[in-house]
Amino acid sequence: MNPLLSLRGLETRFPVRNAFGLRTGWVRAVDHVTLHVMAGETLGLVGESGCGKSSLAKTIIGINRPQAGEILFDGHDIAGLHAGERRAVARELQYVYQDPGASLDPRWKIGSLLEEPLKIHTALSPAERRRRVVEILRAVGLPEAHLERYPHEISGGQQRRVGLARILTLRPKLVILDEPTSGLDVSVQATVLKLFRELRDVFALTYLFVSHDLSVVRLMCERVAVMYLGRVVEVGPTAQVFDAPRHPYTRALLSALPRIGGRRVTDDLKVAGEPPSPTDLPQGCRFRPRCPLAAERCAAEEPALGTEPHAAACHFA
Amino acid sequence: MVELLAVEDLTVGFHTDAGLAQVLDGAGLRIDAGEVVGLVGESGCGKTTLARAILGVLAPAARIGGGIIRFKGEDLLQQDAARLSRDIRGRAITFIPQDPYGSFNPLFTVGAQIRDLVRWKAPRAGRERVMELLRAVQIPEPERALEKLPHEFSGGQRQRLMIAMALLPEPDLIIADEPTTALDVTIQAQILKLLRDLVKDRGISVLFTTHDLGTAWEICDRVSVLYAGQDMEAAPTASFFAAAAHPYTRALLLSLPDPEGDIRDIPGEVPSLLEPPSGCRFHPRCGRASEACRSRPPRREPAPGHLVRCHHPVA
Fold this sequence. Notes:
heterodimer; A: 317 residues; Rossmann fold; 7-stranded mixed beta sheet; 4-stranded antiparallel beta sheet; 10 helices; globular; B: 315 residues; alpha/beta
């Protein structure tokens, strides 16, 4: 299998400014990340808030400009391309916000909403566009009659389907799902996950699945990458990462996850403390201040991410 | 067990431009002394409205249609407002919010805000007691913490401060409204453990609302489930998860992500509260529904302490 998307040494920094607008430091939101997404797979990107997973997703899609590194999509380096130059590549690389239904223009009918991306990005004739729109609408499980309706005339779940259909009209290869189930109730979450799976099979999609929810990632992804304070600390096949985590942070994260019917995590809690400020990172390994295994070497030398398939950035992995 | 709080047949509606939204429809709930009770359900099921009704802080648009909220033997709905605010709200019943940042005044130090609380709601608490509680919730350097502004604390630390403030008036009941939803999983586990240890030591009851069933498993002695404003089932935590009798509870538990299995959702959508279905509000989505479900089922008790409102419970 070939990587569809390769990140090499990617860095995205944000300046920290004081009250006078002078730069006092940097937040290294994405710090030297190397990661590959294989064609046809679903790669999970997990971590707690502030770990840089959304910054990484937004850097790939071009919302943030990287300071260094390469983003190879389908063989082209798209890092730092301008909007116009990106357009040719961009239609095959799509980004889905938390609630794709919320971004529908309330004054447009569903039919026009679905047709708009085709007008911008393709040279299809009106009849061909219409055919494509109907085909996509069926694929997301909505009746053709909905083309003449406005977003407020359909339910929230259906709006979400229209939002996804809008992205799929361009036949993307890679879809970045940014926290697609955050804030959803479990029963709605199940419906949404089912839809993602169906669409992946029908349209041969590759997903980059960004989420803080480990149980959802376990269900949806073939491989998973764990981020902590801007770095990928562990990456590997989902079953291996969940059953035999190698990085102490991954172990801590998994041990904090409630397991209904199992031992309560509040009975034997492993991780204490909170992540340090991203503007003031510790020397050496970033997890060192919270790590039960930390030794002198961890302060002196930042561990490198080992070799795949199951890699971990820890001296003791 | 000694009953501390009982809600019976509580009906609450909200006037909206589109008509009356029937948010709670004959809802019931019971909390015994010293018990941590989870109130679970999906968004819009009425769990926050029920919590606010108990505290007596419903929005002005709310109309209480009927019911009883019995706290230590007296109906809070019949009490006059002055006595509720003097003796009950913030004193005997305190509150931990979902978003601790929004509940602090950003312009005053944490110490000033705790002093206000002591003045109005906990006059017997001295500086010693404040320090002792800040140490109990593991705030580092409590003396210095009092001089800081709310934004100088992390989300987890702010929630620790909220827990200390909820304990300060020595309440009988704490209502915690999704207190860990905004926190990361490693911080969430720490806060849940802290809250459970503190209330168990002091014999305080907690009503813990959450949409996260994993959290309910972690912290609760008993779990009660609401659907579209109706109580469906209540059971001790172990039976709730292992032997749920209501078809809705079963479907909800099955929709949890299961690494081994398929994804199972609940067909259909939550009904509109403007025109809710008659009887059991789950019946249009329920595989076991019959004609009888158009009337509200009575409470049955399949096992001691296990209550279910369903005409056709799962055996």
